[in-house]
Design brief:
This protein is of the alpha/beta class. The chain folds into 4 domains: about 25-195, no CATH class; about 220-240 and about 245-325, Alpha Horseshoe (Serine Threonine Protein Phosphatase 5, Tetratricopeptide repeat); about 425-520, Serine Threonine Protein Phosphatase 5, Tetratricopeptide repeat (Alpha Horseshoe), CATH 1.25.40; about 520-805, Beta-clip-like (Beta Complex), CATH 2.170.270. A 5-stranded mixed beta sheet has the order 12-16-17-25-22, with no helix packed on it. Strands 13, 14, 19, 20 and 21 form a 5-stranded mixed beta sheet that branches. A 4-stranded mixed beta sheet has the order 3-6-4-5.
């Protein structure tokens, strides 16, 4: 026996097996060696070690006694081997001084060999473990490729973290208070206790008709035939699950010895019975495959659309919202691959609809991007879904549907509240993407839903710029018919005409339109800071030019107005005039503007108070909040031709409630002059209580407000405001938004009952409102009621008509 002081030698032969192969010739196949701190050499790369058991273990070795016993044959579910042999061997080890002699021990290992169970036993004194023991290739083969102990409770030793082997607790060596593994000699105080249950001895159904070398393929084919693919009703098919449970109860699959990762591949292939068997055996349903982006079996089943497998995994405890390496949930995969039934099941099982992947996309984004209308329709029916959620690029589901030119999906999303004005990170609206893709039907839908035709992105490009640059003629013609501004410049100073080749068909169309619209592109002729365009898509009536555009009130006769600056009441505020100490605010009872220059909601709409804005005698900044209408027009408006009311005015942008829209400006005339003039449709009574009564006549001098029609349900209301002077006879009439106004809405205010007392004899209201008070139907009904009342009362008293200017 070697001395403990002798260094370990790799070339030594096992004393017990004279026919064992030499180690020196197999070193390259076994891999490199790893040395521990105590000199113990452990072979690495053992997982690639493939030594033929028939050549290593033989029954004709010296000092080995063979006691062969017959054992019942068993059938392996995967390899098809008919039997296994259990081999017992003992290997030499170095002895240390003071080690007590130990009794005979035997080491058992399971090694595949057909077709009998042979017990080969060698009895000899087992040496005590040593830290200097050499692990020969034969020992390493049996430690790696065999299960040394097949049932009971054992201690599991892992000398380097990759190799594990087991030993009985009573077999451990106790040297100087330290516990050592009887196999490798390593210190085993940290060994884990494991329990291996007794294997079930139920015999599987014989397959006599299948040759031994084809049994594995036959079993796999049978599993594929028995597995159930997803489809049909929302709930998993009862018949399929019952057949699987019956197969398990019959014991057909109890002998499968599958690795845990097989659960992932079986979920991908739809092998329901095999999955159920593995779950019964205790495989974790949330097992991650790190080589497959950290997906779980539920990810695979949802991606392939295996609804029944999803149900089995969820019932086994699979996490519905577990994310893979790309932060995707099983629901996201089901939506992306258009598996509607699987989507329905996962949502009913409680999957979250708001989870985002690494790109910020939700399941709704992926359904819209893939054009999966059925999945999209089901998702938008969920109460928790957000149809306007954005991904990391700022794209909403409606943006994806627009870019993919899916008209049906767009109608569906808009019907459930999708915002057509939503912008991405580059400030593009959906109309930009419709122009880019060239789908005029989608562009028409967006315009009908009040999308802004003049919206610009961060580059200053309008949808017309995009359509011209992409040579989308249909979209260009549509935009031109909607009155688009062909002179709008982007940040590079380019008009749409500059974005196409000279003398091309696109250039000719734009140039012709430009010549036709230059004269009427701005009704104000530059007097307003915001151009007021004029379009006619109804008839051939030219843009009105029979008046002089004035941004403020004017006089055509001598009128004395007190504009003496020393007579003005003014404030000395150092802030933005929001405090109660502001003199101008006190004149108005308070400052009625908020920080955005909008009227507060508390103000009376039917009879608003006089508003005194800060004037040029005040000490406050010109930018204080109490200066609004003196800043002029700030809202984009358009004069357009209506079907039955002549010219009208509409908003080209969304307007918040309380926003100043425009001033009713015109020629200030006296009440006497108003009665002399024949045409009084453009008059507005100033309704001053002091001195002579005056009116504003916008027939010959006026601004954009002269084209505003009467609305029985108005979206504007007037208020009297004083800015440059405080002469109570001549207030300025400001029109404010009485409610939120969307782009494309016609603007109008209530002309009042005195106006209609006169005008109803000549025409009827054409506002089209359900609450219209002066339509043909309502006036006819009122006339019939008055005749009945006259017949009842027979009152001959006369009355005096006092029309209001």
């Amino acid at each position: 026996m070697d001395s403990p002081a002798d260094p370990p030698r790799r070339g030594r032969k096992p004393k017990s097996l004279s026919a064992a192969p030499k180690i020196g010739k197999q070193q390259s196949a076994l891999g490199s060696t790893k040395s521990t701190g105590t000199g113990f050499q452990l072979l690495s790369g053992q997982t690639s070690l493939k030594l033929p058991a028939e050549n290593i273990i033989s029954g004709n070795h010296g000092s080995i006694h063979e006691d062969e016993q017959d054992a019942p044959e068993t059938q392996s579910s995967e390899s098809g081997n008919a039997a296994k042999s259990i081999t017992t061997l003992s290997l030499p080890a170095a002895r240390q001084e003071g080690d007590a002699q130990r009794g005979p021990e035997e080491f058992k290992a399971v090694n595949p060999a057909p077709p009998r169970l042979a017990w080969k036993t060698m009895v000899r004194p087992a040496p005590a473990p040593s830290a200097l023991k050499v692990a020969c290739c034969l020992l390493m083969y049996f430690l790696v490729h065999t299960v040394c102990l097949i049932q009971g409770t054992f201690m599991e030793c892992q000398p380097d973290g990759n190799i594990s082997h087991r030993f009985h607790r009573s077999c451990a060596s106790l040297i100087r208070g330290q516990v050592y593994c009887p196999h490798c000699g390593e210190e085993a105080s940290h060994a884990k206790e494991v329990t291996i249950p007794k294997p079930d001895c139920v015999t599987a159904v014989p397959t006599a008709a299948v040759p031994a070398h084809k049994r594995d393929t036959a079993l796999m084919d049978r599993a594929k035939v028995d597995s159930v693919t997803v489809g049909g009703a929302i709930d998993p098919a009862k018949e399929s699950l019952e057949s699987v449970l019956n197969a398990l109860e019959d014991g057909k699959y109890k002998k499968f010895k599958l690795p845990p990762k097989q659960l992932y591949f079986s979920a991908k292939r739809g092998e329901l019975q095999r999955i159920l068997h593995m779950l019964v055996e205790g495989v974790d349903p949330n097992l991650r495959m790190y080589s497959e982006k950290r997906k779980t079996p539920l990810h695979c089943a949802a991606e392939e659309g295996h609804k029944e497998i999803c149900h089995i995994l969820v019932q086994a405890g699979a996490n519905l919202d577990m994310c893979d390496a790309e932060q995707r949930t099983p629901l996201i995969y089901a939506c992306e691959n258009n598996h509607l039934e699987t989507v329905k099941y996962l949502l009913k099982a409680g999957a979250s609809t708001g989870h985002k992947d690494m790109r910020g996309s939700t399941c709704l984004h992926l359904a819209a991007r893939g054009g999966h209308t059925g999945v999209l329709q089901y998702l938008v029916s969920m109460p928790s879904i957000d149809v306007n959620c954005k991904d990391d690029g700022g794209w909403a589901p409606l943006t994806w549907a627009t870019e993919n030119m899916n008209l049906e999906q767009m109608k569906m999303l808009i019907s459930v509240g999708a915002d057509v004005q939503i912008r991405d990170k580059e400030e593009n609206v959906c109309l930009h993407w419709a122009a880019f893709s060239g789908c005029d039907e989608i562009a028409q839908l967006l315009l009908d839903k009040r999308s802004d035709l003049h919206a610009v992105n961060i580059h200053g490009d309008s949808p017309l710029h995009i359509a011209v640059r992409q040579n989308q003629l249909d979209c260009v013609m549509l935009f031109l018919s909607r009155g688009v501004d062909v002179n709008l410049k982007n940040k590079d100073g380019e008009t749409p005409l500059d974005c196409c080749s000279i003398n091309s068909k696109m250039w000719t169309i734009l140039n012709t339109n430009k010549k036709l619209t230059d004269a009427r592109r701005d009704v104000s002729r530059g007097y307003e800071d915001v151009p007021v365009t004029c379009v006619n898509g109804v008839d051939h009536e030219p843009c009105p030019s029979n008046f002089k555009y004035v941004p403020e009130n004017c006089f055509t006769s001598q009128v004395n107005i007190d504009e003496n600056i020393t007579h003005l009441q003014h404030c000395s505020c150092k802030d933005d005039c929001a405090s109660s100490s502001c003199i101008c605010g006190q004149l108005s009872m308070r400052c009625w503007y908020d920080k955005d220059g909008r009227l507060l909601k508390e103000i009376c709409r039917d009879d608003p108070p006089f508003l005194f804005e800060c004037n040029h005698a005040c000490s406050c900044w010109r930018t204080c909040r109490n200066r609004v209408i003196q800043n002029g027009l700030r809202v984009r408006l358009q004069v357009f031709r209506t079907e039955r009311k002549g010219w009208g005015v509409r908003a080209l942008q969304d307007i918040h409630e309380g926003t100043f829209v425009c001033e009713f400006a015109g020629e200030i005339i006296s009440d006497g002059e108003a009665h002399v003039r024949e045409y009084d449709s453009y008059m507005f009574n100033l309704d001053n209580k002091v001195g002579e009564v005056y009116c504003i006549d916008a027939q010959f001098y006026g601004n954009v407000s002269r084209f505003m029609n009467h609305l029985c349900e108005p979206n504007l209301f007037p208020a009297r405001v004083f800015t440059k002077h405080q002469d109570m006879r001549f207030p300025r009439i400001a029109l404010y938004a009485s409610k939120a106004i969307q782009a494309g809405d016609e603007l109008g205010f209530d002309y009042g009952d005195p106006y209609w007392q006169i005008k109803k004899k000549y025409f009827r209201c054409q506002c089209g409102s359900a609450k219209c008070r002066y339509s043909e139907t309502i006036l006819g009904q009122n006339h019939a009621d008055s005749l009945v009342q006259d017949n009842l009362c027979r009152d001959t008293a006369s009355f005096i008509l006092s029309p209001r200017c």
